[in-house]
Amino acid sequence: MVSLQTPICDFGRKAIDFDLPGVDGKRYRLADIKGENGLLVMFICNHCPYVKAIRDRIVRDTLELQQHGINSIAIMSNDPAEYDEDSFENMKRVAEAYQFPFPYVWDETQQVAKAYDAVCTPDFFGFNANLELQYRGRLDESRKESAATSAHRDLFEAMVQVARTGKGPIEQIPSMGCSIKWKNNA
Prior knowledge:
The protein contains 6 helices and 10 strands; from the N terminus they run βββαβααβαβαβββαβ. The protein is α+β, with helices and mostly antiparallel strands. Residues 9-144 form the Thioredoxin domain.
């Protein structure tokens, strides 16, 4: 498992459309999930300890962001041949166990992760109402273990700012996580 940090936010970069199958049997496109005030696109997986440490917080924050007009989607782009825990069946189990309040979709070809330049799990992309990138940072100071419950909620506060103003904070701390498990022919 390689630990990586995300690059700095490329402010204004437009969200890239996709059409991906969800664990709920539906297909999802960008237009289907965009919120009134923005969209949070998360690249996550099931096996990564960085993601496991924050799953409860992801659920909490995405539920609260809905009240601010920000919708969310989680994309799993890892090659499950490397980690069976990342299989589509296991994605269904995780989404159900944690009662994900957002679509959890599979990027089997890994083309969406490449189009977004996703590098790790978790990798967060926060877009405004015009689907322009305004946040690419961490959820909070959690790493492989959850941070203190009093930790500053970087992603949540940034996305509330995006909902109110259309602009993300200039100062952003990169997310850190496991590298995306690319297919050999990818």
